[in-house]
C-alpha cells in the first residue's frame, strides 16, 4: 500500500500547528513486526516539552483484531493488537513526565472502528492514569478508503475551523468522526487545555472577508517575514483583525490596498476629525455598495502604525501625501456590527474600556439596560479618552436599539469619540431610490442638551458619494491584476472600452447609479466569461441583484447543490452559518428536501463561489455568510421565505434533538451537553421568521431543544416583532412568561441545574398560559438536583406580557413619554423612593433608578424642556419636587422645596410665555407653582386651603389661559389662575367628603367641564367658569368612586367612565346626567385605576385595574367585558395607555407587587365566562381513592363549589358539587360504613355538607347550620370505630359531629381554633391539634373535650395551618405554619419545640402538609404568600424551594402527590421521587 503521499499530505496540513514528522529510518520493505514494535515503544517511551503534544498516525491494512505490518501475510490473523496500542498510549500518557502533553492517536485501517473500541476498553480498564489522549478511527464497521482521513482533516482545518487559531482536540475529534463515521474517544480531553495551536500567520484567522480576498491576503502574508507580520497581527484587537485589516480597501468589495481608488476627500475629513474632535460622533454614510467599509478600513490601516509600516516597507501600501495629518493608533475598539446583538456590542465596548466585570455581565445575560447604565457611569469617571469605530450599523441585529440605547449615550460622554459607518435608514437598500427616511441618523443624533460644543443639533457626517472615475480605476485594476496572474487573456484596449461602457453607460432601465459593488460583480462576470469584454451589454446598467442572480445561475449549472447552500447563507441569522456540527448542511438540506445531502458539496462551493462568500467568526466558531447585504436581500425578499425559515427551524430542531440524545447516551452520568451556538442564539429567529408557515410550532414540538436556547433570543423574537401572543404555542409563550425568573435561577448554578430549572419555569409558564400543565415529558435526571414534575391542575389563564421588575414596594404612578428617537418610554414611581425608566418594547429598565427622594414617590408627570427633550417631575412623601432628565438619569438642579409635608399631586401646564410650569399639591394644604427651568417657585403658594390637597388638574379657561382645579379632603374643589395666584370664584362645595378624582373634558359648546369623584359615592359635573354644578350628581349606590376617565362616544360627544369599590364600572353621559346602559360588573368588587385606549377598529375601550390584580378590558358601547389580563399579585393601582411602534395600543400597569407590566390589550381576549380571580381561590384540597383504586382530588373554591379531578388525566370528573352559598374554607375525607369515600365541606355560609364524590350527590340535608363562618375541619375515629368530624368556626370553638347520625357529640371545645389536624398518640388515642390567632397551638382530647397540656407558644402571630407526622423514631410531631413567616416543629408529648424554626418564606406561611420520602423518612411541604412551596427534611432542616408564582392557600399530600390550592386554582405535583437528602 502506497501511503507515503497521504502521510506527507497530513504532515503538510498539520505543519502550521507545529507538528513535525518523525521519519522512518528504514524502508517500507523493512518495516516488520520487530521494527513496528520498536517504533511504537520509542513513541510510548518518549517525552515532549510541557504544553506540547504528539500525533500517532497508523495507516495500513487491518481487521477488527489486528493491524498489519509490512510482512503480515493475508489473511491478517496476527499483527499489532488493540492491547499493544493501548499499552503504548497508556504508558505514554500515564507517564508523569508527559502530564502536560496531549496525544492524538489515529487508526486509519479497515475495520478500525471495532479495533479502536477494543483499545478504548483496554485503556479504560487497565490504564486509568492515562489522560489527555484523543483516539480516532477512520472506518465505520467495514473497509476504509485510503485518503479519507486526509480529506476529512483538510475539510476540518480549512472549511470547519479556518478562523480558529486554537482548535480544541475534542471538537476536532468529533468533527473528524462525524465525517469518517468512525470511533472517537475524547473522554480525557479538555478543549480549554488540549488544543492545536496555529503557529504561522493565516489570513483566515485574522480577517473577515470574501474567500477570494482571503486567499489574496494570504498570498501577501506569505511574502512577508512570518515573525514580523504575526507580531503585528497579534497586537491588533480581535475585531480589528477580523474586519478591518482587509477593509483597508473594503473587504466586502474585495478592494485590497493595491486596488483602493478615490474617496481621498472623505478620508481626509475623517482624519481631520480624529485630529481635532475630543468627543462626539462622526457618521460615515452613503448608499449600499458605495465603499463605506472600504473607506473606514483604509483610514484604519493608515492610523495603525505598525501594520501600515510593514505593508509600505514591502510595497503593498502607499503612504499618505505630505501634509495630511494622521493620528497614530487612535482606536481603542473597532467593531463590524453585522449580525451583532446589543449584548455582544456591550461586551466589546466594556472590554475595550478595561471594564472586565461589566463585559462578563453582558455575556451572562444581565439585562442590557443595567449594563449600559453601569457602563456609562464608569466611563463618566474614566480619565483616559476612548475612541471607538463601528461599521455596518445598519446590519446589526437591532440597529435602532444599538444606536439609541448605546451609541448615542456613549457619544454624549466627555472624552468619548465614535466613528459610525451606516446607511441613512433601515429602509434603504441597494438598487432602490434614496429613502427620504433617516431613522438611523435620527437615532444617533444627539439632543441639544447633551452636546459638548455649541448647541447646533447637527450630526457631523461624511457622505461617501458615487465617484465614476474611482470606480473605473478600481475595475481596471481588478482586470489588470487578473491578466497579470494569467486568469484573463485580453487586449488592453478591449479592457479599457469594456470598463468605459460599464461605468459611463450606467443608467439603463431606470437603475440607480452603480457603486463599487457593481464594479466588483461585473469584474467577476467578465473573468468567468471573457467574451463579455467585447460586448458587455448584458452587464451594462444592471442592478446589483441582477448581476448576483446571473452568478447564481452560473453556479447552479456547476453543481445544483450549490443553490440550497447559498440560499441557506442568505437566510442565515447573526454572523453566518457554521460548517461545524453540520449546521450549514442541515439548513441547506431543509431547503432541498428531495435532493441528496449537500454537506459534501460545501468544499466545492467554497472554491467556486469564493467571491460571493465571506468567512467570519461568531461564538468561537468559523461561520460563512454572503459577502454583501445585497446578496442576502436576494434571498430574504423571496415570496416563500417564511416556508424556508420554517423548514430550517424543523431541520435544526431535529438535528439538535438528535445531538442531545446521542450525547446524553454517551455522557449519561454527566451534565447536559452544549448545543451549537448557532442553534442556541438564532433558532428562535428562524422560528419567528417562519411563524406563518409553522415555524414556532415546529420549535415548540422540540421542548428539549427549546430549553437549551438563549432566553434573550426567544424573548426578543416573541415580543418585539409584532407576533400575536394568543397564537403562539403555549410552550413558547410559557417560556417567555417567566423568562425573568429563569434568568434569576441560572446565575451561580451548575449548568445542569440551570437547564433543569429552565424546564420547570417553562412548564409552569405553560400551565398559566393554557390553564393546565402540559403533558408529562421524559427528561434527563442529573445527580445533585431534584425538581418534581407538574402532573395536572386547573388555573386561571394568564396572558403573555412583559414583567418589569425592580421596585421593592408598591408602584404608585406610571407616566408615558417619548424618547428622542420617537419610541415610547415609561416612568414609574414607587414606595421604594425610586423612579424607574423602562423601554416597554423590551421590558428593559433604561439606566439606573432615579434616586433622591427619601420616601415614597407619589406622583410623576412629564413635560418638555426648552431644548425639546422630555423631562420628568416627581413629588414624594419627603415634601420635595424633583426634576429629572430621563435620557441621562440625572437630577436637574436642586430639589424644589417648600411643601411642609408629602406631595400628593404634580401637574404640568404651559405658562403664557410658552414655558412649562408645574403645579404641585400636598398635605400642607398648599398648591405651589414652579418654573422647572429655573427651579424657582412662581409667586406665593395658593394657600386658601385648610386641608390636604389630593389632586391637581389643568384645564384651559375660555380666555385661553391655563387654570387649575384642586381637590382636597375637605370635600371642595377650587379653581385657580396660576398666573395671578388668585382663587377664581368660590369653592365648588356640594361635596361632603374627600375628593378622590378631578377629570377635565370639553362640553359640546366648547367650554371646559370638570368631573369630580369623592367618597360620598357621587360623580359631579361642574362648569368651572360659572362655578355651578351641572345637573344632579351621578350617584353610585354603594362604595367609593376611585377613578374617572373621559372618552369620546362614536357620535363625538364626551362620555365618563367611573370605577370604584362597588363592583361596577359605569358609563355616564355628562350632558344629560344619565347612566348609559347597565353597569359593567367587576366581580372583584373594587377597581382602583382606569385608562382609555382606542381599539384596532377605532372604537374606544376601557381598561380598569382591580384589587385582585386583574386588568379588565371593556367595550363601553356594548357594556361587555372583552378581555382580562392577569398577572399582578395584588391590587393594580396605576393603569396608563400608550401606542407601540407598530401603531397598536399597549397598556402599562403598576401594582402593589412592585412590578410594572406591559400588555397588548388586543390579545387579552376573554376565554370562557367571566370568573373573578377571587372566585378561583382554592382554600382546601383533599385526596381520596375512586372505586377502581385510582386517586382523585377534591378542590374547594371561593365560588362555593367542590370539583373532583382525576390527577392522571387532569380532567374534571363530573359537574361541580353545588349547594354552598359562599366561599368554602374547609374540607375533609372520611369513609362511609359501606367503605366508599365521603367528602365533608364547610365555609362562610356556616353549613357542613356531606357528599358522595362518586355520584356528586349531597347526602341528606346539611350536617349543621352554624350562624358563623367555618374555618377548619378534621376527621378522626371514635372509640366505636366510626368517623367523627371536628369543625372549627369563627366563634372560637371546635365542635365534634357524628356524620352518620348528624348529631353533635358534646359541648364545643373552647380554644379559638383557626387550623386543625388530628394526631395519634403512641397508644393509638386520637388527639386534636388546633392553631389559634394568638400564635399558640393547643392539644385536645376529643373524647373528654379537655385541653392536654399547656399551649405550645412560640409564634408571634396567627397560626394559619398545622399538620402531624411521625418522627424517625415513630413518635408524633406537629408542624405549625404562621403569619410570622416561620414553620415550627413540636413534640406534643413534651410540649416543647423541636429545634429552631424553619425559616425561608418571605411572607405569611398559610399551608403545611406532611408526606414520606421513598425511604420512609418524613418531609414537610409549606406554602404561603411568597408564591413558593418549600419541601423540608425536618431532621436536617434542609429545604427545596419550588416557585409556583401564586399565593399558596392550602396543601395536602397523598399517593405520592402534593396538591397545592392557590389563588388561581390548584396544581398537582409528583413528589414521589423526592431524594433522601434535599440540597
Structure overview:
There is one protein chain. The protein is an alpha+beta fold. The protein has 6 domains: 4-197, 3-Layer(aba) Sandwich (Rossmann fold); 203-341 and 386-463, no CATH class; 468-542; 639-800, no CATH class; 1036-1172, Methylamine Dehydrogenase, Chain H (7 Propeller); 1173-1470, Methylamine Dehydrogenase, Chain H (7 Propeller). Helix content is 26%, strand content 29%. A 5-stranded parallel beta sheet has the order 9-10-11-8-12, sandwiched between helices. The longest helix has 26 residues, at 641-666.
Which key phrases capture this entry?
1479 residues; alpha+beta; Rossmann fold; 6 domains; five-stranded antiparallel sheet; 26% helix; globular; WD repeat; Quinoprotein_ADH-like_sf
Q: Which parts are unreliable, with pLDDT below 50 for 5 consecutive residues or more?
A: 237-259, 448-456, 1165-1172
What average pLDDT do the residues reach?
Answer: 83
CATH H level of the largest domain: which superfamily?
Answer: YVTN repeat-like/Quinoprotein amine dehydrogenase
Gyration radius, to the nearest Å? 38 Å
Relative strand content: 25-35%
Distance between the termini: 61 Å
Number of helices: 34
What count of structural domains?
A: 6
Binned, the helix content reads: 25-40%
CATH class of the largest domain: Mainly Beta
State the shape: globular
Query: Main β-sheet: number of strands, strand sense, barrel status?
Result: 5 strands, parallel
This entry's quaternary arrangement is single chain
Protein name: WD40 repeat protein
Keywords: Repeat, WD repeat
Pfam families: AAA_16, WD40
WD repeats: 804-848, 850-894, 896-940, 964-986, 1010-1032, 1056-1078, 1102-1124, 1128-1160, 1217-1261, 1309-1350, 1352-1396, 1398-1433
Amino acid at each position: 500500500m502506497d501511503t507515503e503521499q497521504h502521510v506527507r499530505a497530513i504532515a503538510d496540513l498539520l505543519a502550521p500547528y507545529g507538528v513535525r514528522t518523525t521519519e522512518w529510518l528504514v524502508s517500507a520493505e523493512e518495516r516488520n513486526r520487530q521494527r513496528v514494535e520498536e517504533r511504537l515503544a520509542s513513541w510510548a517511551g518518549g517525552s515532549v516539552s510541557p504544553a506540547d503534544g504528539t500525533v500517532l498516525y497508523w495507516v495500513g491494512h487491518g481487521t477488527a483484531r489486528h493491524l498489519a505490518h509490512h510482512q503480515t501475510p493475508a489473511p491478517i490473523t496476527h499483527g499489532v493488537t488493540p492491547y499493544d496500542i493501548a499499552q503504548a498510549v497508556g504508558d505514554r500518557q500515564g507517564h508523569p513526565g508527559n502530564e502536560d502533553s496531549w496525544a492524538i492517536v489515529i487508526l486509519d485501517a479497515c475495520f478500525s472502528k471495532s479495533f479502536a473500541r477494543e483499545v478504548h476498553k483496554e485503556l479504560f480498564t487497565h490504564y486509568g492514569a492515562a489522560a489527555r489522549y484523543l483516539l480516532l478511527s477512520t472506518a465505520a464497521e467495514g473497509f476504509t478508503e485510503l485518503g479519507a482521513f486526509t480529506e476529512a482533516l483538510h475539510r476540518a482545518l480549512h472549511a470547519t475551523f479556518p478562523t480558529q487559531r486554537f482548535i480544541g482536540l475534542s471538537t476536532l475529534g468529533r468533527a473528524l468522526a462525524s465525517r469518517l463515521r468512525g470511533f472517537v474517544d475524547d473522554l480525557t480531553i479538555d478543549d480549554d487545555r488540549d488544543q492545536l495551536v496555529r503557529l504561522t500567520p493565516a489570513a483566515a484567522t485574522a480577517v473577515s472577508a470574501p474567500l477570494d480576498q482571503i486567499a489574496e491576503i494570504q498570498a501577501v502574508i506569505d511574502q512577508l517575514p512570518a515573525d514580523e507580520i504575526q507580531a503585528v497581527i497579534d497586537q491588533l484587537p480581535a475585531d480589528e483583525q477580523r474586519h478591518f485589516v482587509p477593509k483597508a480597501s473594503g473587504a466586502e468589495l474585495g478592494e485590497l490596498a493595491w486596488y483602493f481608488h478615490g474617496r481621498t476627500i472623505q478620508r481626509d475629513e475623517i482624519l481631520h476629525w480624529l485630529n481635532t474632535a475630543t468627543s462626539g460622533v462622526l457618521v460615515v454614510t452613503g448608499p449600499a455598495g458605495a465603499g463605506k467599509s472600504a473607506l473606514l478600513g483604509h483610514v484604519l490601516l493608515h492610523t495603525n502604525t505598525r501594520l501600515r509600516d510593514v505593508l509600505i516597507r514591502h510595497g503593498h501600501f502607499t503612504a499618505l501625501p505630505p501634509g495630511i495629518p494622521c493620528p497614530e493608533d487612535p482606536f481603542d475598539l473597532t467593531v463590524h456590527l453585522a449580525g451583532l446583538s446589543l449584548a455582544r456590542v456591550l461586551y466589546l465596548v466594556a472590554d475595550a474600556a478595561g471594564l472586565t466585570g461589566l463585559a462578563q455581565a453582558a455575556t451572562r445575560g444581565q439585562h442590557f439596560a443595567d449594563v449600559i447604565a453601569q457602563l456609562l457611569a464608569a466611563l463618566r469617571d474614566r480619565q483616559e479618552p476612548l475612541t471607538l469605530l463601528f461599521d455596518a450599523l445598519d446590519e446589526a441585529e437591532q440597529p435602532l436599539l444599538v444606536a439609541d440605547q448605546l451609541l448615542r449615550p456613549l457619544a454624549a460622554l466627555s472624552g468619548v469619540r465614535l466613528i459610525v459607518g451606516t446607511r441613512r435608514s433601515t429602509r434603504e437598500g441597494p438598487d432602490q431610490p434614496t429613502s427620504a427616511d433617516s431613522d438611523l441618523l435620527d437615532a444617533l443624533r444627539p439632543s441639544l442638551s447633551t452636546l459638548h460644543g455649541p448647541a447646533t443639533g447637527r450630526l457631523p457626517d461624511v457622505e461617501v458619494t458615487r465617484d465614476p472615475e474611482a470606480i473605473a480605476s478600481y475595475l481596471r485594476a481588478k482586470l489588470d491584476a487578473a491578466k497579470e496572474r494569467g486568469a484573463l487573456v485580453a487586449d488592453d484596449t478591449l479592457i479599457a472600452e469594456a470598463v468605459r461602457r460599464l461605468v459611463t453607460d450606467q443608467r439603463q432601465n431606470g437603475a440607480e447609479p452603480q457603486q463599487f459593488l457593481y464594479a466588483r460583480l461585473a469584474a467577476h462576470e467578465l473573468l468567468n466569461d471573457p467574451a463579455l469584454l467585447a460586448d458587455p451589454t448584458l452587464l451594462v446598467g444592471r442592478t446589483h441583484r441582477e448581476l448576483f442572480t446571473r452568478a447564481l445561475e452560473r453556479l447552479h449549472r456547476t453543481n445544483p447543490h450549490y443553490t440550497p447552500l447559498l440560499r441557506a447563507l442568505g437566510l442565515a441569522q447573526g454572523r453566518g452559518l457554521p460548517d461545524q456540527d453540520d449546521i450549514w448542511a442541515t439548513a441547506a438540506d431543509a431547503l432541498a428536501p428531495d435532493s441528496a445531502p449537500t454537506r459534501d458539496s460545501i468544499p466545492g462551493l467554497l472554491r467556486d463561489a469564493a467571491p460571493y462568500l465571506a468567512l467570519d467568526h461568531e461564538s468561537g466558531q468559523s461561520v460563512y455568510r454572503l459577502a454583501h447585504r445585497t446578496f442576502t436581500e436576494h434571498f430574504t425578499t423571496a415570496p416563500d421565505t417564511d416556508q424556508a425559515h420554517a423548514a430550517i427551524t424543523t431541520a435544526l430542531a431535529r438535528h439538535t434533538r438528535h445531538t442531545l440524545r446521542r450525547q446524553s447516551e454517551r455522557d449519561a452520568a454527566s451534565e447536559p451537553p452544549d448545543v451549537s451556538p448557532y442553534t442556541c442564539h438564532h433558532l428562535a429567529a428562524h422560528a419567528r421568521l417562519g411563524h406563518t408557515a409553522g415555524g414556532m410550532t415546529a420549535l415548540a414540538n422540540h421542548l428539549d431543544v427549546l430549553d437549551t436556547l438563549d432566553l434573550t433570543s426567544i424573548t426578543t423574537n416573541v415580543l418585539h416583532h409584532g407576533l400575536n401572543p394568543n397564537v403562539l404555542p403555549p410552550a413558547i409563550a410559557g417560556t417567555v412568561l417567566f423568562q425573568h425568573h429563569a434568568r434569576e435561577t441560572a446565575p451561580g448554578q451548575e449548568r445542569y441545574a440551570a437547564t433543569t430549572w429552565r424546564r420547570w419555569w417553562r412548564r409552569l409558564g405553560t400551565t398559566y398560559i393554557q390553564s393546565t400543565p402540559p403533558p408529562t415529558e421524559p427528561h434527563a435526571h442529573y445527580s445533585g438536583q431534584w425538581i418534581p414534575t407538574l402532573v395536572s391542575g386547573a388555573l386561571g389563564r394568564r396572558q403573555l406580557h412583559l414583567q418589569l421588575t425592580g421596585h421593592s414596594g408598591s408602584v404608585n404612578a406610571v407616566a408615558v413619554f417619548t424618547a428622542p428617537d420617537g419610541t415610547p418610554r415609561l416612568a414609574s414611581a414607587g414606595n421604594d423612593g425610586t423612579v424607574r425608566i423602562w423601554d416597554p418594547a423590551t421590558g428593559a429598565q433604561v439606566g439606573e433608578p432615579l434616586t433622591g427622594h427619601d420616601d415614597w414617590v407619589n406622583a410623576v408627570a412629564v413635560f418638555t424642556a426648552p431644548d425639546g427633550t422630555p423631562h420628568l417631575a416627581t413629588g414624594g412623601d419627603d415634601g420635595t419636587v424633583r426634576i429629572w432628565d430621563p435620557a441621562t438619569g440625572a437630577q436637574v438642579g436642586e430639589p424644589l422645596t417648600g411643601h411642609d409635608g408629602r406631595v400628593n399631586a404634580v401637574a404640568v401646564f404651559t405658562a403664557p410665555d410658552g414655558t412649562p410650569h408645574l403645579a404641585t399639591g400636598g398635605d400642607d394644604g398648599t398648591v405651589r407653582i414652579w418654573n422647572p427651568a429655573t427651579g424657582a417657585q412662581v409667586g406665593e403658594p395658593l394657600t386658601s386651603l385648610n386641608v390636604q390637597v389630593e389632586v391637581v388638574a389643568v384645564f384651559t379657561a375660555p380666555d385661553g389661559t391655563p387654570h387649575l382645579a384642586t381637590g382636597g379632603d375637605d370635600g371642595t374643589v377650587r379653581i385657580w389662575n396660576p398666573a395671578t395666584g388668585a382663587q377664581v370664584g368660590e369653592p365648588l362645595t356640594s361635596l361632603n367628603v374627600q375628593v378622590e378624582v378631578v377629570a377635565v373634558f370639553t362640553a359640546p359648546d366648547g367650554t371646559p367641564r370638570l368631573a369630580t369623584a369623592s367618597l360620598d359615592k357621587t360623580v359631579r359635573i361642574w362648569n368651572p367658569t360659572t362655578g355651578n354644578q351641572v345637573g344632579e350628581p351621578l350617584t353610585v349606590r354603594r362604595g367609593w368612586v376611585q377613578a374617572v376617565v373621559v372618552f369620546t362616544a362614536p357620535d363625538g360627544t364626551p362620555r365618563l367612565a367611573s370605577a370604584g369599590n362597588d363592583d361596577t364600572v359605569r358609563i355616564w353621559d355628562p350632558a344629560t346626567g344619565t347612566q348609559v346602559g347597565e353597569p359593567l360588573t367587576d366581580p372583584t368588587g373594587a377597581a382602583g385605576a382606569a385608562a382609555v385606549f382606542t381599539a384596532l377598529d377605532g372604537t374606544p375601550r376601557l381598561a380598569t385595574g382591580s384589587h385582585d390584580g386583574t386588568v379588565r378590558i371593556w367595550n363601553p358601547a356594548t357594556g361587555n367585558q372583552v378581555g382580562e389580563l392577569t398577572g399582578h399579585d395584588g391590587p393594580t393601582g396605576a393603569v396608563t395607555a400608550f401606542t407601540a411602534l407598530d401603531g397598536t395600543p399597549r397598556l402599562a400597569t403598576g401594582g402593589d407587587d412592585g412590578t410594572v407590566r406591559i400588555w397588548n390589550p388586543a390579545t387579552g381576549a376573554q376565554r370562557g365566562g367571566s370568573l373573578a380571580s377571587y372566585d378561583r381561590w382554592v382554600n382546601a384540597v383533599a385526596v381520596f381513592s375512586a372505586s377502581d383504586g385510582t386517586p382523585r382530588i377534591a378542590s374547594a373554591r371561593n365560588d362555593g363549589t367542590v370539583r373532583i379531578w382525576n390527577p392522571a388525566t387532569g380532567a374534571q370528573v363530573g359537574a361541580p358539587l353545588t349547594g354552598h352559598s359562599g366561599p368554602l374554607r374547609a374540607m375533609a375525607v372520611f369513609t362511609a360504613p359501606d367503605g366508599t369515600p365521603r367528602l365533608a365541606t364547610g365555609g362562610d355560609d356556616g353549613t357542613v355538607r356531606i357528599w358522595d364524590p362518586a355520584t356528586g350527590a349531597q347526602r341528606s340535608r346539611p350536617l349543621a347550620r352554624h350562624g358563623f363562618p367555618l374555618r377548619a375541619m378534621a376527621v378522626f375515629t371514635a372509640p366505636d370505630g366510626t368517623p367523627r368530624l371536628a369543625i372549627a368556626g369563627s366563634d372560637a370553638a371546635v365542635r365534634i359531629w357524628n356524620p352518620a347520625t348528624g348529631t353533635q357529640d358534646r359541648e364545643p371545645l373552647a380554644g379559638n381554633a383557626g387550623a386543625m389536624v388530628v394526631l395519634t398518640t403512641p397508644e393509638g388515642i386520637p388527639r386534636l391539634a388546633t392553631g389559634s390567632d394568638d400564635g399558640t397551638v393547643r392539644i385536645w382530647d376529643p373524647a373528654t373535650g379537655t385541653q392536654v397540656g399547656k399551649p405550645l407558644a412560640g409564634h408571634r402571630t396567627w397560626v394559619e395551618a398545622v399538620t402531624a407526622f411521625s418522627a424517625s423514631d415513630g413518635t408524633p410531631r406537629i408542624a405549625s405554619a404562621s403569619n410570622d413567616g416561620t414553620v415550627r416543629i413540636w413534640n406534643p408529648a413534651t410540649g416543647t419545640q423541636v429545634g429552631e424554626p424553619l425559616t425561608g418564606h418571605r411572607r405569611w406561611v398559610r399551608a403545611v402538609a406532611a408526606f414520606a420520602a421513598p425511604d420512609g423518612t418524613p418531609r414537610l411541604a409549606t406554602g404561603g404568600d411568597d408564591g413558593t412551596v418549600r419541601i423540608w427534611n425536618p431532621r436536617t432542616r434542609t429545604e427545596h424551594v419550588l416557585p409556583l408564582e401564586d399565593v399558596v392557600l392550602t396543601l395536602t399530600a397523598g399517593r405520592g402527590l402534593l396538591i397545592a390550592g392557590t389563588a388561581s386554582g390548584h396544581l398537582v405535583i409528583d413528589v414521589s421521587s423526592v431524594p433522601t437528602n434535599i440540597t
